[in-house]
Design brief:
heterotrimer; A: mainly alpha; two-stranded antiparallel ribbon; 6 helices; 2 strands; B: mainly alpha; 3 helices; 70% helix; 0% strand; flat
């Protein structure tokens, strides 16, 4: 079995996207944005994958304090045996997806949730 | 201000004089009204009144 | 009585060449027709200019002399103008000429002109001092408003109804002036002054004689005290006058700036709202952040729900598979691996009917735990959907942003509009106004107190004087006698002022009512007019009620009625010159007013345009009272001539 990661990191591009979203003031902290984008990717039906070239941002335990995300991914991605790596992947993909939507200035947080 | 018809003014004054101060010389009051009417200047008016007063004082006093 | 005979104008307004209007000497109406901009108001101004050396523009502002020169002539380099007015007063014929001449070749300001005035009485030319005195007697400026009538007078008249206003007060005074009240008031004041001097004189005289020394001393003390208080009254009156002037000035400033004041207030309100928006926005954003921390759950909720359903379905399926396998084993081995019991043959037969023919791939046990753990994981997920909360907060934030933008635009517009204003001064002025009103109140109370004190002293003085008269054995000495005459005369004049005013008001009310009823179209509903102390008139219904709501037309008619009443009851009489007085009146009222014109004054000069009253109708309505008609005929845009019609 592949060994799972212990932390979640962001690519340079994702870092920039995160900063942009932070600047809007919709979220209290970066981790909230990351979780949101992860969920966004999940809702979009993104399949399992991996991200490379990331720089660590959050420890897995801090990112998913209640264990719900792990449980969520276990439920939705049953074949995956490396949930933290999956989390990292979904966060980075999600950031890209949300970033693209936000290119439209009219889009607000409520629109992202539609 | 020169006025055309101060009869009404004079009548009003005379009515009150005869009612309240019958011993007061009517001529003096008439002179006062004319003095005001003909002399818009304050000092001129006062001088005219003083002259009228002198005339009124010449009239012997009625007991 | 003042009667106009002839008016000549040259270079004045649209009247380039010398134009002459002759007014008949008999009682009646002269009508001058003219379209707008032909010079009707200019003729009114020409009369004003002749008497006072000034002309009025809109809003009763003095016009610049330079703007009065005829523009056609000005284009040809000819500047300046002349007005001559011939009139009769108290049997004497006068000719008044006023000329305005340029001092330089191309004048552009009033200071580039010099003015000359000439007044001839009969054949004699009056010197400057005599001339000014005579004009002040014949036609004082402050009463001119009752003779030279235009739309502005109406507005002023409305001030009369507001007793406390400065303008209303001025008009009341002007009315009293025209009615001759000042004569009595001044007589009273002068007599009082002389009377007080006489009191002092009497006191001094009394001191010389033994039998009256004590009384004389008391009298002198009392008169000295009275003088001191009167000086204080004088001082307070000056303070009051100054305060009133300040108040007037502020009133004017605030009125003129009322609009700006309102804008300022609006801007302040907008700024306050913007500040509150900032606070609300902050609060909403904090709420948003809180909500967004949880929003990821809402995003995955549906997927989780679907997956959860599928997982539970799978669990059920896999349990079924497992069940089947165990049954098969029980059937084949004749022994149940779960309860470790042998299975009887009849049960084996029964069980055989419940399972399908073939075994599946045997992955059941593993699958079940797998799917059960998946289902369990999905159950562990806390369901939450705050999408509508986020929408609500975001909508509120957007709403506030829009409001903020709108307000900021508004603030920018208002700031531009206020650029001429001095908001600080406006605010200060408002505060100062309040202070001044308060101070005026204080000074007035002070004056009341001082006057009361003076009255007390007066009474004391009169008492002392009477005692003095009694004490004087050798008949009244001249000083005392003088004092008595003056005291009594002062008293008579005081009462005369009040009696005369009351009497006048009654007369004016009666005449005004008569004129009003002749001019109104509601003579059945209305009983007449009632006058108040300030000469304000209210319309009375037959049932005694006052007419509260008055239209502009009604104001018009009431003002005309007052004018006519003043004319008829005033010692001062003169011509009424009216410029387009029918503006706000309907047809019937207009007809009634025209018919009533001869009643308003002996000489009426009416400036109208034909749309107000046509010539045929005018002739019909006035009949033999119509003495002469003129027309202001257009020669060009900048040139008018006067033509006699009849």
């Amino acid at each position: 079995m592949e060994r799972d990661r212990e932390s979640i990191g962001l690519t340079a591009e994702s870092q920039t996207l995160l900063s942009d979203i932070e600047a809007r003031g919709w979220f209290q902290e970066g981790a909230d944005i990351a979780r949101f984008c992860l969920a966004y990717a999940v809702r979009a039906g993104v399949s399992d994958g991996s991200t490379t070239g990331t720089e660590t941002r959050w420890a897995a335990g801090n990112f998913d304090k209640t264990g719900e995300i792990r449980a969520l991914l276990a439920g939705l991605y049953p074949e995956c045996e490396t949930p933290v790596r999956l989390m990292e992947y979904l966060v980075n993909v999600g950031l890209r997806m949300v970033g693209e939507r936000l290119l439209d200035v009219a889009v607000g947080p409520a629109d992202l949730m539609e | 201000m020169k006025t055309n018809d101060i009869t009404h003014l004079l009548d009003t004054v005379e009515e009150i004089r005869s009612r309240d101060y019958p011993d007061l010389d009517p001529g003096f009051l008439q002179a006062v009204v004319y003095a005001e009417e003909q002399n818009p200047d304050e000092q001129d008016a006062i001088r005219a009144i003083q002259m009228a007063l002198k005339e009124a004082l010449k009239i012997p006093e009625s007991i | 009585m003042l009667t106009l005979r002839r008016l000549e104008v040259e270079g004045f307004g649209p009247f380039a060449d010398r134009q002459t209007l002759d007014f008949p000497s008999s009682t009646g109406v002269t009508v001058i027709y003219g379209e707008n901009m032909r010079g009707k108001t200019t003729l009114l101004n020409a009369i004003r200019y002749a008497f006072f050396g000034t002309a009025l523009g809109r809003g009763a502002r003095t016009r610049r002399l330079h703007t009065i020169s005829n523009r056609d002539r000005a284009a040809a380099g000819i500047y300046g103008f002349e007005v001559s007015l011939t009139f009769v007063y108290e049997g004497d014929e006068y000719e008044l000429s006023r000329t305005c001449e340029p001092k330089v070749d191309s004048p552009s300001r009033d200071t580039d002109y010099s003015q000359r005035a000439l007044l001839r009485r009969g054949n004699a030319v009056l010197g400057p001092h005599e001339r000014e005195k005579a004009l002040e007697l014949i036609f004082p400026n402050e009463v001119s408003r009752f003779f030279l009538f235009d739309g502005e007078l109406l507005q002023e008249y409305e001030e009369l109804l507001i007793n406390e206003s400065e303008a209303g007060h001025r008009i009341s005074e002007a009315i009293e002036r025209i009615l001759g009240v000042p004569i009595l008031k001044r007589a009273r004041a002068h007599l009082k002054h002389l009377s007080e001097d006489a009191d002092k004189q009497a006191a001094r005289e009394a001191l010389k004689y033994k039998d009256t020394e004590v009384l004389g001393s008391a009298l002198q003390q009392a008169t000295d005290q009275r003088e001191a208080h009167q000086e204080e009254i004088q001082r307070l009156q000056e303070v009051l006058a100054d305060l009133m002037a300040q108040r007037s000035e502020l009133e004017l400033y605030l009125q003129a700036n009322e609009k700006l004041s309102a804008l300022l207030q609006e801007r302040d309100n907008a700024k306050d709202r913007v500040a509150r928006i900032e606070v609300e926005d902050k609060r909403h954003r904090a709420d948003l952040q809180r909500a967004m921390a949880d929003a990821w759950r809402a995003l995955v909720r549906e997927r989780v729900r679907d997956a959860r359903l599928r997982a539970h379905e799978s669990v059920r399926e896999q349990v079924e598979v497992l069940e089947t396998r165990f049954r098969r084993i029980a059937i084949e081995a004749g022994h149940c691996p779960i309860c470790d019991q042998d299975v009887p043959n009849d049960v084996r037969d029964r069980l055989s009917g419940t399972i399908p023919g073939e075994d599946n791939d045997g992955s059941g046990a593993e699958d079940v735990s797998h799917v059960m753990s998946r289902a369990s994981a999905l159950d562990h997920f806390r369901d939450s959907d705050n999408a509508s909360e986020v929408r609500g907060i975001w909508k509120a934030i957007n709403g506030l942003a829009l409001e903020r933008v709108t307000l900021q635009e508004k603030i920018a517009d208002l700031t531009a509009a206020l650029s001429d204003a001095d908001p600080l001064r406006l605010r200060e002025s408002n505060a100062t106004f309040g202070e001044i009103v308060e101070k005026i109140s204080v000074v007035k109370r002070g004056l009341e107190g001082e006057r009361a004190r003076v009255d007390e002293l007066d009474q004391n003085i009169q008492r002392l004087k009477r005692k003095l008269e009694e004490a004087s054995k050798a008949g009244l000495r001249e000083g005392q006698r003088q004092a008595r005459i003056l005291r009594e005369a002062t008293d008579v004049l005081s009462r005369a002022v009040e009696t005369y005013k009351a009497d006048l008001r009654t007369r004016v009310e009666s005449t005004a009512s008569e004129l009003f009823l002749a001019m109104t179209t509601e003579e059945r509903d209305y009983a007449g007019l009632s006058i108040n102390e300030a000469y304000g008139l209210t319309i009375r219904h037959q049932d005694g009620r006052a007419e509260e709501a008055r239209s502009a037309g009604a104001e018009h008619v009431v003002a005309l009625a007052l004018m006519g009443a003043l004319q008829r009851n005033a010692p001062l009489r003169g011509p009424i010159v009216m410029d387009s007085p029918f503006g706000r009146l309907d047809e019937r009222h207009t007809e009634n007013v025209v018919k009533a014109l001869p009643k308003l004054a002996d000489q009426v000069i009416l400036l109208v345009y034909e749309a107000e009253v046509g010539r045929t109708l005018m002739r019909e309505l006035l009949g033999s009272s119509l003495l002469r008609e003129y027309e202001l005929e257009r020669q060009s845009a900048r040139r008018t001539i006067v033509r006699e019609v009849r």
